[in-house]
Amino acid sequence: MNTAIRIKNLRKEFGAKTAVKGLNLEVREGEIFAFLGVNGAGKTTTIRMLTGLSVPTAGDAEIMGHSITKEPDTVKILGNISPQETAVAPNLTVKENLEFIAGIYGFDRAKTAEEMIARFGFDEIRNEKVKTLSGGWQRKLSIAMALITEPKVLYLDEPTLGLDVLARRELWHVIETLHHKITIILTTHYMEEAEELSDRIAIMVRGDLICAGTMEELRRQTGKEKLEDIFVSIVEGIR
């Protein structure tokens, strides 16, 4: 399997604080890779660097062979992000949101919107203003908008944050339909979510990558069965 992301000694400092400390990691094409960690662990900062939204203090990363420091414009085209704060225009309808993003990136507005409406099952809500929709629908729309550019890598930053159980499960299904078709980087605080969706999981603590591997590898490393117990044992051990 080819490498989609290769991170080499990636570091980010904010004044005296180091948010990411020399991160080294590889992510394979088509896999779902989860970043876990308590608030402030460096997950979102890492994603911001990988998407070109933040410039590294040191180190580099390659997205599909392209450097985030030397080819930032190319990297921005190769990836897209569905952020924690749902990136939708609340006063526009579902269709208008899709047309708006399609137009920004030079795609056929009407055709692209119709394709996404069909792909994500938006037909019943196509003319509804987004602010009237449930959180689950809004997050699904945010992911659809991120996919309009046909990115090679999709970054999902806390995609089910604040959703109820049923809405979370429905969004899991959406993510599962993308498995092996696109590389997905997932950050989440929900252990069940990471365990259910991910091929491999990384745990970060205060900017350091402590471990990364499949569930079976993490079980062997810690002697724990459930991901929550694995996570707690590793984080408390570092603290």
What topology does this entry show?
Blueprint: E1 3-14, E2 17-28, E3 32-36, H1 43-50, E4 58-63, E5 66-67, H2 72-78, E6 79-82, H3 94-104, H4 109-120, H5 135-147, E7 153-157, H6 165-177, E8 183-187, H7 191-197, E9 200-205, E10 208-213, H8 215-222, H9 227-238
Parallel strand pairs: 3-8, 3-9, 6-7, 7-8
Antiparallel strand pairs: 1-2, 1-4, 4-5, 9-10
Helix pairs in contact: 3-4, 5-6, 8-9
Task: Please describe what this structure looks like.
- With 239 residues, the protein is an alpha/beta fold.
- It has one domain (3-237): Rossmann fold (3-Layer(aba) Sandwich), CATH 3.40.50.
- The chain has nine helices and ten strands.
- The strands form two sheets. The protein has a six-stranded mixed β-sheet with strand order 6-7-8-3-9-10, sandwiched between helices. Strands 2-1-4-5 form a four-stranded antiparallel β-sheet, with helices on one face.
- Helix 6 (165-177) links the parallel strand 7 and strand 8 (183-187).
- The longest helix has 13 residues, at 135-147.
- The model has no long low-confidence stretch (mean pLDDT 93).
Percent in strands? 25-35%
Please tally the β strands and state the result: 10
- Helical fraction equals 25-40%
Distance between the termini: 36 Å
Number of helices: 9
